[in-house]
Amino acid sequence: xxxxxxxxxxxxxxxxxxxxxxxxxxxxxxxxxxxxxxxxxxxxxxxxxxxxxxxxxxxxxxxxxxxxxxxxxxxxxxxxxxxxxxxxxxxxxxxxxxxxxxxxxxxxxxxxxxxxxxxxxxxxxxxxxxxxxxxxxxxxxxxxxxxxxxxxxxxxxxxxxxxxxxxxxxxxxxxxxxxxxxxxxxxxxxxxxxxxxxxxxxxxxxxxxxxxxxxxxxxxxxxxxxxxxxxxxxxxxxxxxxxxxxxxxxxxxxxxxxxxxxxxxxxxxxxxxxxxxxxxxxxxxxxxxxxxxxxxxxxxxxxxxxxxxxxxxxxxxxxxxxxxxxxxxxxxxxxxxxxxxxxxxxxxxxxxxxxxxxxxxxxxxxxxxxxxxxxxxxxxxxxxxxxxxxxxxxxxxxxxxxxxxxxxxxxxxxxxxxxxxxxxxxxxxxxxxxxxxxx
Length: 439
Fold this sequence. Notes:
By secondary structure, the protein is mostly helical. It has 20 helices and no strands.
């Protein structure tokens, strides 16, 4: 009886799941830090306005508008970051690019925590803050494309929606962590302590968080899809036409428009809106925001899992239609002083949950739109452009239009209109994209 020579020893059965879980954690942690900081900036917008954008004699509303302008400027640098880091990620790899991104993001955020205010250094203070916001925008632009590429390219067959949903879930966790930290500080500190130095604490906490994220990404493997693409580059490979990629980016941004606008309206801008328009206290505004974010978090992972079974289109369309139809009634309920706190809480929870139906399948939907050779760049640009226009400007647009018109329903109109446009773009999705292999 003859025996054949032993072949290569196959990897252990658990190796692939371990790599997938490691990719999920490493991809998620940077996203958590990014949205934690963006949430903190939004929640402390009124305090930041007083310290950096309201010199003696300036009005509170004027300072808040300037704060949101700085907020929006950071978002407009996201597409630049998506293009620069996306190109790197598609050329040298997801892993090294994500390591560079987390270092830039952590450094810029921690520096905000030690930045001198207008009272200390005058007009240089808002410019320095804006510079750090720009660096954050660049790093955030490079974060999303890499994180989603890593998660979906490592995802087991039939689970891209579930794995990609963790990107959106960490958005909710980051915003909730920011709101929780803001609420904790507002509870344990006096108003003068919070306004004097307490607001700096959440920004400084990103330093240890960033070091943990860096350690996780240093242990990350390169994705199998990118490794295969590197091998194929030794042979003549025709890249996708530039026009095809540009069209895909524009279509993807349209599909994300409602998610971006409604998400920031209900999850980030809400505290300042409630304080300045409805005269809510800081603590009341934060509680309202936490409820909206809890609804958002609760629906994201189930939405991703369901989208693996019935498709991205059905789930995302449901979320966009719900916001388009219910945004105004829900906001009117929150505005009504005769409504109970429970009813208002349920309305905010429901609004967040509707946004989560779009956010859960969204990352996988984007990954399925682009081939491996341009995936990091393509999906990163689509997400960054959508967020730059419809998220970054949300606070600025809502605050300015409410100020000029006196119409307190503006947030609902904004969320509903953008979701209505997203419905049209989502109708172009194929129903079986979730069943196809990544290109």
